[in-house]
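hey can u check if this looks right to u? its 358 residues, i copy pasted from the old doc so theres a chance i mangled smth
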Amino acid sequence: MKALIAAGGHATRLRPITLTINKHLIPLANKPMIFHAIEKIANAGISEIGININPGEIEIRQVVGNGSRWGVQITFIEQQGGPLGVAHIVKNAQSFLGEDDFVFYLGDNIILGSINSFVDKFRNERPNCMLALSKVRDPQRFGVPEMCDGRIVRVDEKPQAPKSNFAVTGIYIYDRNYFKAFEHIVPSGRGEYEISDIHTWLIQNGFNVGYQEITGWWKDTGKSEDLLEGNQLLLAEMTREEAVVEGEVDPEAIVHGRVKIGQGTVIKGRCLIRGPVTIGENCVIENSYIGPYTSLGNGVRVIGSEIEHSVVFDNVNIHCSKRVVDALIGKNVELASAAANMPVGHRLVIGDNSRVEL
């Protein structure tokens, strides 16, 4: 069995963050999002992974590398023909996948636990396709299965009137009949080859489409609030064994709960760090409060400030004497006090599609 990870697209809903970083490299729990997908696949015993990327994409290649750190072999596959839909991503990788069964994993999906039981069920029951389903509050945002007598009879993409409260998550397993189905579907009204049309064609033409419900949490990180929730969920799963303090903590500082602190980081002065929190390497936290569900990247400085339930990228400088919550802060950002300069006020440099609360 092989695996294919979708890591292309332009993530316009996450701009301006994604103007300078590929969405799949956004750090969640201080780890690029795509790393979580690779780890799940590697832990399921799959060693050949293809990653679909945008034409000319360099950054993902550099960050991910050849896969040796996970004991897998990674092949990068540039998307050809433009953004033609999720189903076309698989078609684009046909030469890599060949005749093998394969896991198709949307790289911006975050799930609890492993995919091992999902993969094992496919291997044992031998359907032509296996879907991972999850109950959601807003199924109209997703592909939605219509169920009858415990079987999937149809899958509709983003229906206005969903036939169930299940969503088809971004994790699928197929055999080679995927490509037979693809030859019989056409682009939808939005000009894309829909993955739901693949599933419906297989069902209507006598192929076996099985499913397994994800009983824990699943997160599709399409919006900024989804990223923050994904970060929260991952930090909530951090074990005490993972919560290692490798930096230097001042005796005056208080560290509560599961807190991971990287090498070269210094926590000094009157600090309170309340986990779950992860702090990268070579950071300085001084006279500040770091609240639950916060991830601070490498080289971050937080001086005389408070931050909670936020994701902070590398080399950010926060010294604003304010409480920052529910924030997604990109690389090399500085948050300074408005009272530090004259005239007193809020001096702003804001890119397109930003949101600021004053």
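The chain has eight helices and 29 strands.
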